[in-house]
Amino acid sequence: MIEILSTGAVNSVQDLGRTGYLDAGVGRSGAMDLPALEVANLLAGNDRHAAGIEIALFPFRLRFERDTVFAFAGADCPARIGDREVPGWWAMNAVAGDVLTLGLPRSGARAVLAFQGGIDVPLVLGSRATDLKSAFGGLEGRGLNRGDRLSLVDGPRKRLKMEAGFGADPTGLRGPAIGKDDPVVMRVLPSAEYDTFTAEAIDHFTQAEWSITNDANRMGYRLSGPDLQLTRKLELFSHGIMPGTVQVPPNGQPIIQLAEANTCGGYPKIANVIEADLWKLAQAPVGARLRFEMTDRDTAVAALAKERAFMTDLAAAASLMRGWM
Amino acid sequence: MPGAGNNAGLLPTTESVLLMRQRLGKPEKLIYHDGVEILVAEIPLTEIVSPRLSMEGAGAILLDAAGAVFSDAVQARIWAVAAAMAALDGVAETVPGMNNLMIVFDPLALAPVKAEKQLLEAWLTVVPDAVAGRDVDIPVVYGGETGEDLVSLANHAGLSVEEVVRRHSDAVYSVAAVGAMPGFVYLSGLDPQLAMPRRAVPRMKVEIGSVIIGGAQAGIMPCTAPSGWHIIGRTEVPLFDPLRDPPAACRPGDRIRFRVVEVKA
Question: How far is A201 from chain B (nearest CA, A)?
């Protein structure tokens, strides 16, 4: 068991999300920063699909009620267990009674924690992810509250040989850290209505800086920036949309759909953030500045292949490093 | 970026068109495409012949076959293509919309170009009636407190309340798509006389089970949520339960009939 000592209600149990139910209106959900959760799981010796905790509201504290191994990745935030510092992208032993504290991020917006075995909440439609919008999955379909106690999936209990733990270098996955004053650059592919936007709108879209408004959550982010208009009015029938789809409602200000996106929408779509860059949005806080850079599908697929290769290498390296005892 | 967005508008090959003509068995006529004389079935080109393909990221493709108005024939083809694509390796999800279809796949397992090719091929070769929907019976208490807009809808339609209930419950609706929110059904088949523009100001809370009409569409609320549609009745049938598999009571292609339990004043 682990007990939550301080949290905000948007922090929730997440895994890599649900698949196979979009045609029932059930979205993917899952961690906003999927690669960070996958890395944390691999460091903790878990299956990549194990459930962990996504933290977007800080400070966050929990107490371990049994010995276990945990891993921490995602946002760069100060983390301590007892009086020891925990580096980012790191796995460590915890003993019963240890308190783990995550402070306000120095950069990034969402941290993830993985625990040996993964968090044991019921599988709902094949996943343990919390769908906060629809109120199912995770812990009773809701975010975490102080006093919640979460069980871990039972299995062989092992400990890391190195008391200091070990970590991964995420540079191979995400490139050099993004400077605090630099805009976040996301690669996008054009989507169905791209050609129906005015030349001016396309210029704005790819040249301007956009900022993330307060209206930003796991469903999506509303952006503010120059006005994007169509060359003619469009009446679209409802159609499938994805995390990463950039819609433009009649007010001319884009919305980026994210982990808890509705499965269908009707607004014109100008572009899609490529799958391999979605984590950048997960790590961009309200007020952050964004830029869109057009790319092509081969580049988008190559970026995913690179991510997949990183995970394969990491899984092999981590199993050597852990040196279970 | 040059060529960005020029991913849509793939045209079918002549052979495919001929194949489709055979399947459809409709009268044919001659048209010219890039100077080549080809035969096509005499049906609106916008409806069947040229679906538009576009990307929704590297791992999703949207096939859009919508014309100016919703077409049941196109929708039947959409369901059949969805079923054909769902059987392919690498395809994770098929999401029928209203006269469109999104497929979601692992682009490392199925090359996007190949997925597009297979999607178009399926579009031109599927037999639409291969999808056998189920009949779903939805008992409804019309009017009263849980159908508070029934009278105003009758007034708008220029019909009696009884006539509105009769027309609403006589029709057979087809579940075109399920989506937006979990278990929400997009229904086609509403009597045009019962169409009514959505409320200017949506209600912040429309109860689960509300039987509703918005514009020319009929629907049922699968959960309590905001909506601008008119509420004409209430059903107790649960439309969505995440602990059930499949979680949604209705699937694309199903036929829905509303059965009158009671009409309240």
Answer: 14
* C-alpha pair distances (Å), B133 with each of A254, A261, B183, B254, B255: 37, 27, 16, 4, 7
Residue A237, SS3 per DSSP? coil
Nearest CA to B156 out of B194, B200, B192 is that of B194
Contact assignment for B179 to A244 by CB distance below 8 Å = no
Asked if CATH classification 2.30.30.760 holds for the domain at A184-294, the reply, yes or no, is no
Interface of A with B in 205-224 (CB under 8 A): 206
Question: Nearest to residue A262, comparing CAs of B31, B111, B223?
Answer: B223
- Is the Cβ of B27 closer than 8 Å to some Cβ of chain A? no
Q: What is the ipTM of this complex?
A: 0.96
Contact A263 B99 (CB under 8 A): no
For B265, other C-beta atoms within 10 Å of its C-beta total 7
Model confidence over A119-166: pLDDT tens digits? 999 999 999 999 999 999 999 999 999 999 999 999 888 899 888 999
How close, in Å, is residue B218 to chain A by CA atoms?
14
The reply to whether B123 and B157 lie within a common domain is no
User: Is A300–B58 a contact, with Cβ atoms under 8 angstroms apart?
Assistant: yes
pLDDT digits (tens, 9 = 90+) for B56-110: 999 999 999 998 888 888 999 999 999 999 999 999 999 999 999 999 999 999 9
Distance, CA of A60 to CA of A3 (rounded, Å):
11
Domain borders along chain A are 2-173+309-322, 184-294
